[in-house]
Amino acid sequence: MLTLTINGRAHTVGDDVDSKTPLLWVLRDTLNLVGTKYGCGVGQCSACTVHLNGVPIQSCQVPVESAVGQKITTIEGLAAANGALTAVQQAWVDEDVPQCGYCQAGQIMRATALLARNPKPTDAQIDTEMAANLCRCGTYVRIRKAIHNAAAKIAKSGGAS
Amino acid sequence: MSSVYLPESMQRLYARRREEAAQLTRRGFIKLTGVAGGGFVLALSLGPAAEKALAQGKPASDANLNPYVQIGADGKIVLFAKNPDVGQGVKTSLPLIVAEELDADWDKVEVRQSIISAELYGLQLAGGSTSIPMNFDTLRRAGATARAMLVAAAAKTWNVPESELATDKSVVRHAKSGRSATYGELAAVAATLPVPPADAVKLKPKSAYRLLGKRIVGVDNGKIVRGEPLYGIDQRVPGMLYATFTKAPAIGGRAVSANLEHVRTLPGVKHAFIVGAQGDGVTFDLSGAPAVLSGVAIVASTTWSAMQAKKALQVQWDEGNASRDSWTAAVAEAKRLAGQPPAQVLGEGGNVEAAFAAGKTVEAFYGYHYVSHADLEPQNCTAWFKGDSVEIWAPTQTPQAAVDAIAALAGLPKDKVLLHQLRGGGGFGRRLANDSVCEAVLVSKHAGGVPVKVQWTREDDMAFDYYRAGGFQSFKASIDKEGKLAAYQNHFITFSLDGKTPAPAANLDKAEFPANVVANQRMVQSLIPSKIPTGPWRAPGSNVNAFCVQSFLNECAVAAKRDYVDFLVDLMGEPRPLPPDPFGGVFHTGRAVGVIKAAAEKSGWGRKLPAGRALGLAFHFSHQGHFAEVADVSVDASKKVTVHKVWVVADIGPIVNLSSAENQCQGSVVDAVSTAMGLKITFENGRVEQGNFDKYPILRVDKAPEVEVHFLATDYAPTGCGEPAFPPVAPAIANAIFAATGQRPRTLPFSVEGYSI
Questions:
Q1: Is B45 a residue whose pLDDT tops 50?
Q2: B226 vs A35: CB contact, 8 Å cut-off?
Q3: What CATH number does the domain containing A100 carry?
Q4: How far, in Å, CA of B83 to CA of B95, rounded?
Q5: In angstroms, rounded to a whole number, what is the distance separating the alpha carbons of residues B320 and B254?
Q6: Do residue A47 and residue A8 come from a single domain?
Q7: Nearest CB partner across the interface for B303, out of A29, A40, A127
Q8: How far apart are the first and last CA of chain B?
Q9: Of A63-72, B39-48, B688-697, minimum mean pLDDT range
Q10: Which helix (H) or strand (E) holds B466?
C-alpha cells in the first residue's frame, strides 16, 4: 500500500496497483483525478504534466512509488477551496485559449510553475519553457498571451498567484 | 468548383440531412409545456404523431423531446448545443446565435450538449465547417420565436401593446409604465400562448446585435481549466473495465491466434479474445455501416494493466489480404505515370495543346505525403452492451452515423442505442470515423455485457488512421505574350482502393481553381492501387491542392515576370459568382480579389526586406470561405526556415463569435506550418513507420509564428471557420521561400527537401 499526498490530501493506493505504474494512470484510473491527460505515454507531449514539489514533471514517466512522500499537485488542486481560479487559470479563460482544450491542463501546470519561478517571463523565456508541451490545435499564440496576462494579474495582486 | 472533397457517402448524407433541416425550419416550432416549475420549452415541430401526443396533454420530457431553448419559472434558461465540439467552438457559437435573438443574458444561461436525434435536430455533425452555415437561420428562429412568446406574455399580463415592449438580458420592459418582468416570471404565461407561425417572427437586423460578432469565451473554459471530466477518455461508469485493441501491423491483416491464455494470467487482465473484422475497415465510410479491423481485445481492471498486457501479446496474423504498400514504390510509380498519358480525363475546355504551342510553357511536378490526424486525445470509446440496449459515451464527430453502426452491430433498433456525446480532444476529421466506437461495442458484448472503455495507445492512433492521402500533381501551363495564363493542365496522380476511383477524400474536382477561370484547361487523372486507409483531414483536398496550385501559379507569375498579386487578381477577371459546388459553396471572384488585395495591404506587400527574407502570398477558396494569406519568412544557408508572421484575411460573411473565429484562424496557421514543415506518414510492406510524436514532430510554441487575422465585413451569409484558414499557409510559405532564395519546395512536407524549422 502506498500513500500519496495530492493537492494537500493523503490518498492511499491499494496493493492491487503495481508500484511501477506511472503516476498518470494512478491519478486517472485509481484516484479518479482525470484532469491530467494521456497523450503519448512516452514523455513527448506533456499533456500529463503535474507538479512534484512544485516542479513540472511528465506523470506518464514517473512510477507511482517514486512520488511517495512528495507533494503532488494536479490541475484539480490549483483553484482555491472556495472555487476561485488562480491567475493562470483565469487568464486562460479570459484569453479564451482552449480549442479542444485537451492539452490545456498540462499547459496550465507548466505555465504555473514558470510564473512561480519567473514572475515576468519574456516571449523567448515562455517559448523555451513551454516548448515541452504540445498543442495539436495550435493555440500557442494565445498561450503566450495568457501567460503575460497572468503575470500582470499576479503583479497587480502583489505576487500571489 | 468544389473545394470540399468528401466521399460520396458523405455527400449523400449531407444532402439528406440538409433537406431534413430545411423541412424542420419550414415546420416552425411547437411548444412543450412539461418543464418542471411551469416554464416552457420550444422544440422544432416533431410531426403529426408527436403533436397529437402533446395535444392529448402528455407531458414532454427532457429525455425524448430536447429543444434548443428551455425557460423555467425559476428564471433558468438552458440552451442546447446540437453538434459535437472537438475544438471548433460550436458548443459556444451555436447557442450564442439563439441567445442573440432571444435577447438572453448570456452570462447566466446554461449551455448543455443536446441529445442525439435526427428528428429533433436534423444533421448533428462536426465536419465540413458546416455547423454555422447549416444552422444559422434555424437557431435565429428558435431564439426569436421564444422571445416573441415572452413578449406576448408580457403584453397580455400588463394589457399593453407588444409594440411598446423591449427585451434585454432576459427581461421584458415596458418603458411607459416602468414595468419589467424576467423571462422566468413570464414563462408560465408564455406557456399558455400559441406559438407564432414562422413567418410572423421577426429576426433582428445585424445592427441590433449585442452578442454576435463580439468576443465570447468558450462555455467549457471553466471546466477545462479546472480539469473537470469532459472528454471521452474521462468517462467512468460503475463497474467499468478498460481495454486495449491490437490490430495487425500490416493494415488489414487478420488475427488468427494469440497467446491469450498467457495474457489472461497477467496482472489485472479479466478477458482476452480475438475480434473479427466488420466491413472492410479500410474504406472510410459515413453511411453508418460498422467498420472494425480484426484484432485482439485485452480487457483489464485499469488502462495501464491493459496496456502492459498488450506488450506481452503475441499474435499470429493472416496478412494474405493485408496492405503491402510501399511509399517509396508509390513515389517511383507516380513519377513514371507523370510521363505517361493519363488514365482518365476529369474535365476539359478550350484547346490546351494549341495554347501550349503558342506560348511560353511552365511545367512542374508536386507531391505530398500522407499525414495522420494525431488528435491529442487518442481514439477511445466507452460502451455498455446490455443485451436489449446499448449505452455509449463517445467523443465522435458523427454521432448519428455512430448510432446507426452500433444498432447494426448489436442487432438492435436504433431507439435502443443511447449515445452520450462527449467533447473530443481534437477531431480534424479523425472522429468522423467510428471505428473505435464499433470496437467498444463488440468488446463490451464479448466481455459479457460489462461497461468497457476501449483506449487506443498513441501508437495505435498513429498506425491505424484514415490518413490524409498522399498524392502528386504534374502541371503544365502556357503564358501568353501579355503575361496571362493561357492554358492550364493538371495531371493528378492519386491513390485508389478499388482500382477505379480515387480513395476517400483523395479526389480532385474537375472545376478546381484555376480550371474554372481559364478558357483552355485540362484536368486528367491516373491512379495508383493502394490499401492504405484514407479519409477527410482538416480541409480535405484543399489542404494539398492549395499548396500545389498556388505554388505552381506563383511559378507561372514568375515566368510571366509579373507580381503575384497582380497575376492572381488578373486571373480572377470580372467580379462574378462561379457555379456552386455540391455543398452550395459559391466561389466569387470579387470576394477572392477582396481578400487578396486586403492581404497585400495588411502585410505591406512589396516592401523591402533583408536578404534571405521575403513575403509569400496565397489564396484559396474552400468550405464557402475566401482566404488570402501572407507569410513573412526567413531562410538561412542551411535551409533553416523561420516563419515570422502570417497575415490571414478572410471573407466568411458576418462573424458569429470573434474570439472563436480568430482562434480557429490562429490555430489553422500553426497546424499548417507544422504540417507543411515536417509532418509525414510513410509505410513499407503495409506497415506505417511512425508511432509517436518523436517521429511525428508537431510544431511547438517556440516555432509558432505571430498571426494577424482580419475578417472582411461583408453581407454574405455567415460560413464556417474550422478549416478554410488552413490551405493557403503552405503555399504562402513556399512562395516566400522562393522569393527569399530562388529555390522552391515542391513536396510536402518541406523537410523531405532538406528544410527545417
A1: no
A2: yes
A3: 1.10.150.120
A4: 10
A5: 8
A6: yes
A7: A29
A8: 34
A9: B39-48
A10: none
For chain B, the residue count is 757
C-alpha cell at B244: 486495449
Residues of B in contact with A97 (CB under 8 A): 221
Contact B693 A76 (CB under 8 A): no
> Hey, what amino acid is at B430?
R
- Asked whether the beta carbons of residue A101 and residue B87 sit closer than 8 angstroms, the reply is yes
**pLDDT on residue B8:** 55
Dist CA B611 CA B591 (whole Å): 34
pLDDT of residue B37: 52
Shared domain check, A63 and A25: yes
Q: What span, in angstroms and rounded, lies between the C-alpha atoms of B383 and B379?
A: 13
Q: Band of the pLDDT at B43, cuts 50, 70, 90? A: low
* Interatomic CA distance for residues B88 and A46, integer angstroms: 22
**Right CATH number for B327-371+467-753 from 3.30.365.10, 3.20.20.10, 3.90.850.10, 3.60.10.10?**
3.30.365.10
Q: How far is CA B528 from the centre of its chain?
A: 27
Does A82 fall in a domain? no
Supply the CATH number for residue A36's domain: 3.10.20.30
pLDDT (mean) for A24-50: 98
Nearest to B227 among A40, A76, A140 (CB): A76
Contact criterion met (CB < 8 Å) for A16 and B226: no
Q: Which helix (H) or strand (E) holds B648?
A: strand B641-651
Is B8-212 a CATH 3.30.365.10 domain?
yes
- Please write the tens of the pLDDT for every residue from B280-330: 889 998 889 999 999 999 999 999 999 999 999 999 999 999 999 999 999
- CA closest to B538 among chain A residues: A137
Give the separation between CA B135 and CA B97, rounded to whole angstroms. Answer: 9
Percent with pLDDT over 70 in chain B: 91
Strands, sheet with B110-113, edge to edge from the N-terminal-most edge strand: B29-32, B40-44, B69-71, B77-81, B110-113
pLDDT band (50, 70, 90) for residue A144: very high
pLDDT of B178-225, one tens digit each? 999 999 899 888 877 888 887 888 999 999 999 999 999 999 999 999
| Shortest CA distance from B302: residue in chain A | A29
Q: Which SS3 state, helix, strand or coil, does residue B366 take? A: strand
Instruction: Phi first, then psi: give them for residue B177, nearest 5 degrees.
Output: -100, -10
pLDDT category of residue B46 using cuts at 50, 70 and 90:
very low
Number of domains present in the structure of chain A: 2
- Domain region containing A66: 2-77
pLDDT for B38 equals 55
pLDDT tens-place string over residues B492-515 = 999 999 999 999 999 999 999 999
- Asked if residue A161 is part of any domain, the answer here is no
Grid coordinates belonging to B630: 501572407
β-strand partners of B619: B628
**Band of the pLDDT at B27, cuts 50, 70, 90?**
very low
Q: Which grid cell sits at B555?
A: 511559378
Does a cis peptide bond (omega within 30 degrees of 0) precede residue B654?
A: no
Residues of A in contact with B374 (CB under 8 A): 136
Q: Choose one of A77, A111, A144: the last residue of a domain.
A: A77
